[in-house]
Design goal:
The chain is of the alpha/beta class. It has 2 domains: about 30 residues; about 200 residues, TIM Barrel (Alpha-Beta Barrel), CATH 3.20.20.370. The protein contains 9 helices and 10 strands. Strands 2, 3, 4, 7, 8 and 9 form a 6-stranded parallel β-sheet that branches. The chain has a two-stranded antiparallel ribbon with strand order 1-10. α2 packs parallel to α8, α5 packs across α6 and α7 runs parallel beside α8. The longest helix has 26 residues. The radius of gyration is 24 Å and the shape is globular. The protein starts with 10 loop residues before the first helix and ends with a strand. About 5% of the residues have low confidence.
Length: about 240
């Protein structure tokens, strides 16, 4: 069978083939650029020093935060707390205590919804509503945010940055929000924790085993030579790993 050379084709077919090739190249280039430029939050820091950040999200209740703060005070551990706006407004005494005891305050947004589902300007509105709540109650102006459900995309990260925030995730998830058992929480954290790690825990009332697991987590990590710092302090100790 004789092969048909491109140059022997009719002009109209040549033009059509060239246009199809151009469309294909543009489409694949866009996909490549978007994949290559995907923005990511902070998961951990690259360092060989045995240092990590213990963090707590709070969105519900007042029974768990107090005991968590008691444990941290007794153990002399400074942590970073990510607070939701409505919770901060409803229970102002607890956020004030968190700030007064030297812990770092971060934002956990306002409504507990996936921010990536919102238009860009609405994301900024959600972030700034929570910012205003935390600042009004505590006098502190947070610059770190852990988005609700850990949800993010480029739009969310860009919106947060325009609001003066850095988006923080975690390297180790304790899964304490699943209430898997005290031993399971302790084992998961202490076996997965590593230098430069950000550990996710919760101080909401829905997390029934956090206060029992926390002293063991702190004790075992200290026995391994780790020391605890806030997220902002951790960010000064090495390049970001995301």
């Amino acid at each position: 069978m004789r092969l048909i050379c491109f140059w022997h084709l009719r002009p109209q077919i040549k033009v059509l083939l060239i246009l199809l090739a151009a469309v294909f190249l543009v489409a694949t280039s866009v996909v490549y650029v978007e994949a290559g430029s995907r923005l990511k939050p902070v998961y951990e820091v690259q360092t060989e020093e045995k240092v990590l950040a213990l963090t707590f999200d709070i969105s519900w209740g007042t029974k768990t935060p107090g005991p968590v703060l008691d444990i941290l005070k007794e153990q002399q551990v400074q942590s970073t707390f990510f607070l939701s706006g409505p919770w901060t407004e409803k229970y102002p005494d607890v956020p004030r205590r968190i700030a007064a005891e030297g812990h770092e305050l971060g934002s956990h947004g306002y409504q507990h919804i996936n921010l990536s589902t919102l238009p860009f300007d609405d994301i900024k509105t959600e972030i700034m509503k929570a910012h205003s709540s935390i600042e009004k109650v505590t006098g502190k102006s947070p610059s770190l945010i852990r988005t609700p459900n850990g949800d993010y995309d480029n739009k969310v990260i860009k919106a947060a940055e325009e609001c003066g925030y850095r988006v923080i995730q975690w390297g180790t998830d304790s899964l304490d929000w699943k209430n898997p058992g005290v031993d399971a929480i302790v084992q998961r954290v202490t076996t997965r924790a590593h230098p430069g790690d950000i550990i996710l825990m919760h101080a909401s009332d829905t997390c029934l085993q956090t206060t029992q697991a926390l002293p063991q987590v702190i004790g075992e990590l200290r026995a391994k030579g780790y020391r605890f710092v806030t997220v902002s302090e951790l960010l000064q100790m090495g390049p970001i790993k995301n």
